[in-house]
Amino acid sequence: MNRLAVSLPGLELKNPIIPASGCFGFGEDYGKFYDLSLLGAIMTKATTLEPRRGNPTPRLAETPSGMLNAIGLQNPGVEVVVAQKHTALEKYDVPLISNVAGNTFDDYYQVCKAVSQSPNVKAIELNISCPNVHKGGLQFGTDPEMAAAVTRAAKEGATVPVYVKLSPNVTDIVEIAKAVEAAGADGISMINTLVGMRIDLHTRKPIIANKTGGLSGPAIKPVAIRMIYQVARAVNIPIIGMGGVYTVDDVLEMFMAGASAVGVGMANFTDPFVCPKLIEQLPQRMDELGINSLQELINEVREGILNER
Amino acid sequence: MNRLAVSLPGLELKNPIIPASGCFGFGEDYGKFYDLSLLGAIMTKATTLEPRRGNPTPRLAETPSGMLNAIGLQNPGVEVVVAQKHTALEKYDVPLISNVAGNTFDDYYQVCKAVSQSPNVKAIELNISCPNVHKGGLQFGTDPEMAAAVTRAAKEGATVPVYVKLSPNVTDIVEIAKAVEAAGADGISMINTLVGMRIDLHTRKPIIANKTGGLSGPAIKPVAIRMIYQVARAVNIPIIGMGGVYTVDDVLEMFMAGASAVGVGMANFTDPFVCPKLIEQLPQRMDELGINSLQELINEVREGILNER
Amino acid sequence: MSQAMMTVVSQTEIAKDIFELRLKGALVNEMGAPDQFLHIRVPGDELLLRRPISIASIDAEKEECVIIYRTEGKGTTIISKLTAGDELDILGPLGNGYPIDMLEEGQNALLIGGGIGVPPLYELAKQLHAKGINVVSCFGFKNKEEVFYEEEFAAFGKVNIATDDGSYGKQGFVTQYFTELDGFVPDAVFACGPKGLLVAVAKTFDPSKTYLSLEERMACGIGACYGCVCDKKNSTSAYDNYRVCVEGPVFRAEEIVL
Amino acid sequence: MSQAMMTVVSQTEIAKDIFELRLKGALVNEMGAPDQFLHIRVPGDELLLRRPISIASIDAEKEECVIIYRTEGKGTTIISKLTAGDELDILGPLGNGYPIDMLEEGQNALLIGGGIGVPPLYELAKQLHAKGINVVSCFGFKNKEEVFYEEEFAAFGKVNIATDDGSYGKQGFVTQYFTELDGFVPDAVFACGPKGLLVAVAKTFDPSKTYLSLEERMACGIGACYGCVCDKKNSTSAYDNYRVCVEGPVFRAEEIVL
Ligand SMILES: Cc1cc2nc3c(=O)[nH]c(=O)nc-3n(C[C@H](O)[C@H](O)[C@H](O)COP(=O)(O)OP(=O)(O)OC[C@H]3O[C@@H](n4cnc5c(N)ncnc54)[C@H](O)[C@@H]3O)c2cc1C
Ligand SMILES: Cc1cc2nc3c(=O)[nH]c(=O)nc-3n(C[C@H](O)[C@H](O)[C@H](O)COP(=O)(O)OP(=O)(O)OC[C@H]3O[C@@H](n4cnc5c(N)ncnc54)[C@H](O)[C@@H]3O)c2cc1C
Ligand SMILES: Cc1cc2nc3c(=O)[nH]c(=O)nc-3n(C[C@H](O)[C@H](O)[C@H](O)COP(=O)(O)O)c2cc1C
Ligand SMILES: Cc1cc2nc3c(=O)[nH]c(=O)nc-3n(C[C@H](O)[C@H](O)[C@H](O)COP(=O)(O)O)c2cc1C
Ligand code: FES
Ligand code: FES
After folding, report:
1. DSSP conformation class of B86
2. Which one-letter DSSP state was computed for residue D42?
3. Model ipTM value
4. Where, in this chain's numbering, is substrate bound (chains A, B) (predicted)?
5. Is the pTM of this model over 0.95?
6. What is the domain range of residue B154?
């Protein structure tokens, strides 16, 4: 038995460690460091219908135990992604979770349809932290009805399971989670970045050209754990947890909060080998904590939650 | 001229450094380390109508570049606070900003009225991150209408200026800020803590007995800066900024985002002398950055904001 | 109580993962009561909350004190890497410590410690012994590897040791010695260790003569944050409780709800 | 390109706040082109983003390389405290570095550096000189205190220095030397320094023969995060740009929008 294997809709993973979207490109760069087949899955860089140039630089800033980024969804567009990026990853034995972004319902519909065609794309991660052009730039992810509507649009286009990636920048994340579950989401991925800013004391202006950026890293882990814990108690679909995972203890904390797999973002920048290291180190830590297998841990946490109800 | 002096409604401060509420008790403990008259002001521990025992322990947990707390508003009630705690601080030349909390509109009205009686209370800080018993525990601070209503109740009771302390756990903080400004708030204080959680890997349960706790410290500074920046561009009342201030650079970053004074919370625990140190170190850093006086900096930032409009 | 830098004189691993750290500095002049504690800033800017560690012994003449701690997590691990000459930012001495004034020469004191709860009792044993009080100690450890300071305590009186796995002393809980004190009737009982042990001690001995040292997670360490509270027994007030950092860490068993 | 630990051989402050750090390790065997860079993990767990620093010189035989950096903020300050024997976690060598293959013996190369932009040119000067190419260098510094490596570069050709305050060499911008090269017509221009300097260089010299080394804030350092991009000149694509960490840090002036 593989103690690290976890099973989620569309995803039979040999282990739960998944590089998070935007932190791993389309894998090619980290593929120079290690065999990507080691990974549980890969969450690819956000893909949009048309090519996108992204934001001006600086796009990055460091913060205490974290960082800000405002890449701005730079990507070559779904056509190139499907034709070149996905196929380039076919040589690895690793499922892809395609991160899909857009500004209109139709964007989401079309991109979901297109990425579903790639045989190695086993699931879609719906990035709903994008401004909705029809609603004056309000993010899809901050309103339950809009979040539900974009989920439905995606489900119509997709032929693989859809995981909706929740934004933490909301008053009530549970409400959004319930809405996307009701709209047919197969799973939830959380959390995306918190909106943050740093100001340069010399120029007196934000360091990031886009002014605000997304905060990720260990700094946001307590917020992620809290939200996963709350959402796991409100929905019945599985959660892929992320936000500040650097160590095996972080991975297991996510599971205990209610996650069934874990995304690793910023940590890749600190240590390019962090994902294979986590995979290697998990069994020993599980021994120490008396965890036979991750699937068993998922079930036990789930039972605990059901007993609370 | 005092380069550090700043002027806000009800508060003519000799410097902008203010220990944040809940991190400094009613001053007596830190008064054993240094002369509290050095401080710009003191934000006192949350005061409620009736005495409160607070939450069970553990109430604290450490997180990357931050901490969680769930003290639960423990305090001896407004009667004792006014009769004993405020008077004990009269020997210092320092204005108090009384942090007021409650579960009903009437709570706020009455406590504001009572604390206004203390001659050294020069302003009130309205803690609206409290569950509203009439609205099923929903926080006053997460809904613009409720926030406005509680501000009005407070203004009715208070005879000193009221600063409303905003919760960062909302989708749109600007909307809340505008609502409390319209309801008569004299100023804004921000941010309160983000809701977070840590789980103990051995017990598989949250470390904090209350499950969730408030996240403070440098980890949340980018979120605080972003929110201050946004709110400063939407309201005309002054902002007391806080969230992760540890260094003079943090203080000045808050000013450049749009704050007119700065609260210092968790940093007191790391270094009990942090507030007097910041006051001492500010002038040199201002020299290096070409800042004549803080009031001038406030005006320049304000002008910049008005020019953007 | 002050904040000051203290200098590391020496550091030794005296048992598995247990370190004895000797510190020097003027702060020692403020130390008195046994089991006050130091609130230690972990070197480097990564960990922002201080770590509370009890004072194990005081050498006023040399301006030195000793703390003994187990490497639990990141903070104590970083501290365990310090070597002679390194500096530590210390806030202390904090808390009240064990009282000894109520005891007189010739009276009996029973010391009960579990694991890392043993060292805080050392300065106490020293002071009791100096005062002519008879000391008997009962200590529980996980296993032989983790036993430490037996000889040091033996200098002041009988030491009974139990280990969980029986690899040293009696096998099982230290509580088994409570009924085998061979006629030694304590006039005061002092205990420090895990909560389970303190509960057992509080049940066995006269709660008006039993002094328990508590541990709580701390932030400020000086009474300002109300993070470290412990319930008062029979409190009539709706808000009142003790702050372990100020009113404790030592309480009479009859004062508190464990 | 690999990740490996390298050992500090020595560290010297060679000018005010400018440190020369000599590192040893097998990673040196992968180093070749001048001005590739190392992505350095700052010791301790406080700072999580690596710091990019150019390789200033390579000694393949000894498996050593040198980096030269100014203490800007927390990261470089922590690194400046390292002493012989300490270890550093290094990712590298990264980026493309300056090309020299297009130059032939007897041709002329002009090196232009501003402040901390000078050291990345050192390995280049060495390699150019070894190939028999004539090297002239023009360097700008803030003041006399911050001037460094003048002698080292003088071994390879003429060095012109300007300082902002005139305390050493000519007073003012290094750009004033561009019109006073005494008939030295460069076949290639190599520049590294602040953006303003690079813009001036790009305007003055033939952009097809001018090589600029860019700085951008970096996260991954290997091309995955798209944090460090720079616009392509005349790009027809709606999304395409260069990643400074992979396609750079050195670009021909004609390729990019500064
Ligand atoms: C009054 C007092 C006296 C103490 N005396 C000693 C002593 O003499 N020797 C000794 O080995 N230990 C002692 N402890 C426990 C010691 O404080 C913790 O083991 C230590 O803080 C763990 O820090 P860490 O960074 O290694 O572990 P981590 O688990 O990484 O610490 C994370 C956070 O939890 C807190 N924490 C973790 N465990 C405890 C605990 N048991 N009690 C309080 N806070 C905790 C830490 O202070 C820190 O804020 C004492 C605790 C208190 C309250
Ligand atoms: C390809 C490349 C080569 C470089 N080579 C050298 C060199 O040889 N010598 C040298 O002194 N400096 C060099 N730099 C600049 C150097 O990376 C920064 O000075 C350093 O990262 C500052 O780190 P800090 O922690 O001291 O400063 P902080 O200001 O605390 O750094 C905060 C964050 O901003 C980033 N940052 C700050 N300044 C810069 C900058 N100028 N460029 C890129 N990122 C920055 C840091 O990497 C970090 O992520 C180079 C930069 C790049 C991109
Ligand atoms: C540089 C960078 C780029 C990112 N790009 C995307 C993206 O394209 N789509 C997306 O859904 N999330 C994106 N994210 C968010 C991450 O996938 C992840 O949700 C977040 O960073 C929290 O995880 P971490 O703390 O482990 O980094 C990005 C994060 C970073 C740091
Ligand atoms: C232990 C603790 C207790 C707090 N109690 C209160 C409180 O009673 N009322 C309140 O408005 N804010 C309270 N806060 C929030 C702080 O006043 C401040 O808004 C927050 O901690 C962010 O600042 P910091 O990062 O500097 O700590 C408390 C924070 C801490 C850490
Ligand atoms: S630790 Fe703050 S009151 Fe005890
Ligand atoms: S730093 Fe990530 S792409 Fe260059």
Report:
1. I
2. P
3. 0.96
4. 45, 69-73, 127, 192-193
5. yes
6. 6-56+73-195+214-308
